[in-house]
Design brief:
This protein is of the alpha+beta class and 579 residues long. The protein has a domain at 427-572: Heat Shock Protein 90 (2-Layer Sandwich). The protein is built from 14 helices and 16 strands. The chain has helices at residues 3-68, 71-80, 94-101, 178-182, 208-217, 257-307, 322-366, 369-382, 388-419, 431-441, 443-446, 471-487, 519-524, 540-550; strands spanning 105-110, 115-118, 141-146, 151-161, 168-175, 190-196, 221-227, 230-240, 246-255, 427-430, 454-460, 466-469, 493-501, 505-512, 554-559, 565-572. The chain has a five-stranded antiparallel sheet with strand order 2-1-5-4-3. Strands 11-13-14-16-15 form a five-stranded mixed sheet, with helices on one face. Strands 6-9-8-7 form a four-stranded antiparallel sheet. A hairpin with a 2-residue loop joins strand 7 and strand 8 (230-240). It is elongated and about 185 Å long.
Length: 579
């Protein structure tokens, strides 16, 4: 099996397992979230039901009490208190009273429980019921009542007429039916219904076991019912009377269609994502295989290029990852170290060669100086013997000879200094102090009247460490760079002196905003006797390079035509020295 195929199986398998796991986790989280939401909504509905029950119970108790306190009821009670009173004359009394008070149920009973008048079932005149006498007067309660065609649950209250030694009981209330449920604000996806537990209304088939469990245990029961149009989470909440018996069941159903639709979308999304992941796995495996082999080929090509002398070869940054990337960085580090060592060797060889050249030039140029001096002396002695015409020629020749000798002496002196430069005497010196002294030395020249001003900007790193250098030699090198920057800005500008702390070294930067240098000028700038100025010997930057090399550092120039020049010196920081 090829590497590409193995990578495809690995990446594709990982992608498929990851998508499947994520789908399962999201689905489980959705189920738990919907279950918690359904439980919360059900509890809110139950609390709302209880509040509405209490509110309507208080309203029923007030309405029943008002019926008992009415003049008609009190007169009827007074008549019925007499012996041999005719109760049939009041058989139709309850219906208009119930209608006027907005009650669904209103029964007038004698003290022994015989029905005198019933608004909901007038035919029950004379029937005897005993349960109202056991209920507290004026307190609402839940009770199952018989109706002409069915059983029903009702919120009832009992009032006595008169209050002491009553001869008439008033029992009234409202049914718990759809009108009661309509007074509740049902959230979307939630339904509620009442089921009579006394045998009046037969429960639906799928809910039979749930209702039976709620009746038997007297506690709330929960079950998920699978209806033809989708699943539903159903809570059966028992409704008890004043004696604790279960009289009815409140059914609260939370539709599971939203959850089912969400789970379906999650599954199909997971399938789609898995398909995309498998396709992506194929592409990634192909790219990964290419990225494993291509970096190795780049490293091999780089090794051949370096071996052939191409020291500027660089492995592309995006050519490798992982261990091969580490190998590529190690190769780059090795190449940079080889380049650094080569540059140091070239600089050392160049400095040594030019020092030898300086010695030879100094030797060759010093020999003619003595005869020239003798010639000058002879000319002076001959002045008294020559004619007046010779005097004019003599003075002119003497001036020309003096200027030439002065220039020759300056060149010889610079070459001699370059050749006889002593070994540096290292001392611990603050890097920022060196830069400040070099700039301060020429500040008056930068601000001199009659020329365009140059702004000196110091950007000194406060954490710059101490360096071990020869203060005199290294200071002259920095002064030389500052003076070159000033010369590069005859029309004024900005001179920036900067120190930057590095892990094991300190970087000095002297930048100007002059015309800048071409690529060829930047390459030859440190060559002895090469200069871009109209005056000078061209040994200044060569001496600076020699000083930096003697201190174990490096110097380079960063410039482009029209964008100024920046000379960068990097020297090792002094070990174990405070900044």
């Amino acid at each position: 099996m090829t590497l590409r195929a193995r990578l495809f199986l690995l990446v594709g398998g990982v992608a498929a397992v990851t998508v499947a796991g994520a789908t399962w986790i999201v689905s489980a989280s959705a189920r738990r979230a919907f279950a918690a939401l359904d439980a919360q909504r059900s509890s809110v509905l139950v609390a709302q039901f209880r509040r509405e029950f209490d509110r309507q119970g208080e309203d029923v108790a007030e309405r029943v009490a008002s019926v008992a306190a009415s003049d008609d009821i009190e007169r009827a009670a007074a008549v019925l208190a007499q012996s041999h009173a005719d109760a049939s004359r009041y058989v139709d009394m309850a219906a208009p009273l119930a209608s006027a008070r907005g009650l669904d149920v209103l029964d007038l009973l004698t003290a022994d429980g015989a029905i005198v008048s019933s608004a909901s079932w007038p035919a029950r005149f004379g029937y005897r019921i005993t349960w109202p006498r056991s209920e507290p007067v004026g307190r609402p309660f839940l009770q199952a009542i018989e109706q002409p065609r069915d059983h029903a649950l009702a919120i009832l209250a009992v009032a006595a007429v008169p209050a002491r030694d009553p001869t008439l009981l008033v029992v009234g209330g409202r049914r718990l039916d759809e009108h009661f449920l309509q007074s509740l604000a049902l959230p979307p996806g939630l339904r509620a219904q009442f089921v009579d537990a006394t045998g009046g209304t037969p429960p639906p088939g799928p809910l039979e076991s749930l209702i039976a469990r709620a009746r038997q245990t007297g506690v709330e029961a929960t079950e998920t019912i699978e209806w033809p149009d989708g699943p539903e989470s159903v809570n059966a909440i028992p409704l008890t009377g004043s004696n604790g018996s279960v009289l009815g069941v409140l059914i609260v159903g939370a539709s599971g269609s939203e959850l089912a639709a969400l789970l379906s979308r999650i599954r199909w999304t997971g399938i789609a994502v898995a398909g995309v992941a498998i396709l992506a796995a194929f592409g990634l495996s192909y790219l990964a295989a290419a990225r494993v082999t291509r970096p190795v080929e780049e490293l091999a090509r780089g090794a051949r290029a370096v071996a052939a002398g191409d020291w500027d070869f660089h492995v592309p940054e995006d050519a490798a990852t992982g261990e091969i990337d580490d190998l590529a960085r190690a190769f780059e580090t090795m190449t940079r170290q080889l380049v650094d060592q080569r540059e140091r060797l070239v600089q050392a060889e160049r400095v040594a060669a030019w020092r030898e050249l300086a010695r030879r030039l100094a030797h060759e140029l010093k020999n003619p100086l003595f005869p020239l001096r003798l010639t000058v002396d002879n000319l002076h002695r001959a002045k008294a013997l020559s004619s007046a015409e010779f005097d004019e020629v003599f003075e002119e020749s003497l001036g020309t000879l003096s200027i030439g000798l002065s220039n020759l002496t300056t060149v010889v002196g610079r070459f001699s200094d370059f050749a006889r430069m002593p070994a540096p005497r290292l001392e611990a010196v603050g890097a920022n102090d060196l830069v400040q002294q070099a700039v301060q030395l020429y500040r008056a020249q930068m601000e001199a009247p009659g020329r365009q001003p140059i702004a000196a900007v110091l950007e000194l790193d406060p954490s710059a460490p101490v360096v071990r250098v020869d203060p005199e030699q290294f200071g002259r090198a920095l002064q030389n760079l500052v003076l070159n920057a000033i010369d590069a800005m005859p029309s004024g500008g900005r001179l920036t002196a900067r120190t930057v702390r590095m892990p094991t070294a300190i970087r000095f930067e002297i930048a100007d905003t002059g015309e800048g240098l071409t690529e060829e000028e930047s390459t030859r700038l440190f060559t002895p006797y090469y200069t871009t100025k109209a005056h000078g010997t061209g040994l200044g930057l060569a001496i600076v390079q020699s000083v930096v090399s003697d201190h174990g550092g490096r110097i380079r120039v960063e410039s482009a035509r029209g964008r100024g020049a920046t000379f960068v010196i990097e020297v090792p920081a002094a070990p174990n020295e405070p900044a």
